[in-house]
Amino acid sequence: xxxxxxxxxxxxxxxxxxxxxxxxxxxxxxxxxxxxxxxxxxxxxxxxxxxxxxxxxxxxxxxxxxxxxxxxxxxxxxxxxxxxxxxxxxxxxxxxxxxxxxxxxxxxxxxxxxxxxxxxxxxxxxxxxxxxxxxxxxxxxxxxxxxxxxxxxxxxxxxxxxxxxxxxxxxxxxxxxxxxxxxxxxxxxxxxx
Length: 193
Known about the structure:
There is one protein chain. The chain is an alpha/beta fold. It has helices spanning 11-20, 31-43, 61-66, 80-89, 126-139, 161-172; strands at 49-55, 70-77, 96-100, 112-118, 140-151, 178-182, 185-191. It has one domain (11-191): Rossmann fold (3-Layer(aba) Sandwich), CATH 3.40.50.150. It has six helices and seven strands, in the order H-H-E-H-E-H-E-E-H-E-H-E-E. The chain has a seven-stranded mixed sheet with strand order 3-2-1-4-5-7-6, with helices on both faces. It starts with 10 loop residues before the first helix and ends with a strand. The mean pLDDT is 93.
């Protein structure tokens, strides 16, 4: 927080986390994560997508699963260390690529018909949430699907999962999302106009 204004977490914040563990949130082994992945995949509104984007892909566990439903899949993350793990994890799927990018300052070129932001929005400041929504609006094909997943536990700054999702959806301006709440997280599905 600077002068009372929440700031997004930067690469150094995540570098410190990944320096302690290559899987700090137990994406590979946690029953919570497995259930969340299953419910995320079940929420996808179509069986197949041409070009998917996962923002905040970390070590690529969800990326690998999403790629089964996409002709091409791009995972981006602010930290370098988890991307190396993700590349190894997804080496058997050549249609997956990864890039280090600090959203919203940098954003991939191209148009996407699936965008997944899973447990990443609450790391962004309100200003960066609005800028990320603008980035998303500019890269979605007609009828694209977006899936937001946000943890509902006690969040640190800059915002809670509910606050981040609500701010992002409001800034996106596409109308109501289909929201479902589960034990520990909320899942929103939004269709591009």
